[in-house]
Design a protein that fits this description.
Layout lengths: L1 H29 L11 H29 L3 E7 L8 E4 L2 E4 L11 E7 L6 E12 L5 E5 L6
Antiparallel strand pairs: 1-4, 2-3, 4-5, 5-6
């Protein structure tokens, strides 16, 4: 949960920094102190950046704080492979989930039941359902388990 609140804090700070830069660029335009002519377009670019940051990062995390505090999560079963497993993200079926790699360990070749926040895709819990093990003859064997991943 600390990972989620830390990312919420950082995305809020980034949005506020872009907002301050936007107000400074607007003030420079209003006072007609631009040194180059492209400087007049800085507020347009900063407005686009501000909206992108707010809509993709800050607002979904702010809305998901209610889900974290009330512990109401979306649940899904996913297959984890090497191709869809990143450093701190899991991409499956076109959806990207973020997780704390020091808290949750996902093994490739296994199937997990994940609990995540619906808007920002932050993994709260992952339960190992089954894992595929290759035996000495090269045959895949599925082992069913029901343990929570720490």
């Amino acid at each position: 949960m600390i990972f989620f609140f830390w990312s919420l804090f950082l995305s809020t700070i980034m949005s506020l920094v872009v907002l301050v830069l936007l107000f400074k660029a607007l003030r420079v335009n209003q006072e007609r102190r631009n040194r180059i002519s492209l400087g007049y377009l800085a507020p347009v670019a900063l407005t686009g950046l501000f909206l992108a940051l707010m809509l993709s990062m800050t607002v979904p995390r702010l809305l998901d704080t209610v889900n974290l505090l009330t512990e109401t999560y979306a649940i899904e079963e996913v297959q984890v492979d090497r191709q869809n497993l990143g450093w701190n993200s899991l991409t499956t079926e076109g959806r990207r989930y973020f997780y704390n790699q020091w808290q949750i360990t996902l093994e490739p070749g296994s199937q997990y039941r994940i609990e995540y926040t619906p808007r920002s895709g932050y993994l709260v819990r992952a339960t190992l359902i089954e894992t595929t093990v290759v035996n000495s003859r090269g045959l895949a064997i599925r082992e069913a388990t029901g343990e929570d991943v720490p």
